[in-house]
Amino acid sequence: MADKTLCVPHFLEKKPDSQLLVETGADMIVRPNIPASIEAIYKIIDQIVSARFVLCGALHAAIVCCAYNSAFSYFDSGYVDAPFKWCDFSASIDIEEHFPGTVLEGERLYGARIHGRIRKPNLERILDCAPYTPPRALQVRLRSYQKAERGRTRTHGPH
Known about the structure:
By secondary structure, the protein is α/β, with parallel strands linked by helices. The chain folds into 2 domains: about 5-115; about 125-155. It has helices at about 15-25, 40-50, 60-65, 85-95, 105-115, 125-130, 135-155; strands at about 5-10, 30, 55, 70-75. The chain has a 4-stranded parallel sheet, with helices on both faces. Helix 1 (about 15-25) links the parallel strand 1 (about 5-10) and strand 2.
């Protein structure tokens, strides 16, 4: 799957997969309409992060790509749900919101405007303002993750 490109359309996207494949140039369509189970969540996350590039019509796919340092861009199939949420997420990671319609356009955009520019929010600050005290084990894991992220971005850039 590492050599494959994906298109993850919005949950309400009406176009059939066959049409999306032709229009986007993606190798596969992965629908975010999944069963309500942990196994289904793990499976779709694995599909997304295993791809070489992901065209994201579903904001959750973009969030997963960002979290796992995977190559992605947003996607406009003619249906962009709630533009404000895309703007809000883009602002939170310090990128501009652009909506290409094909994998080729998305990969070009990723190389020119996303790769190396993402600035992820500080998760420790987010936990610190949570309305409850997170479990100690979560705090320890988070600090370890943040330390590794800081080392990775210093050595290799954000991606």
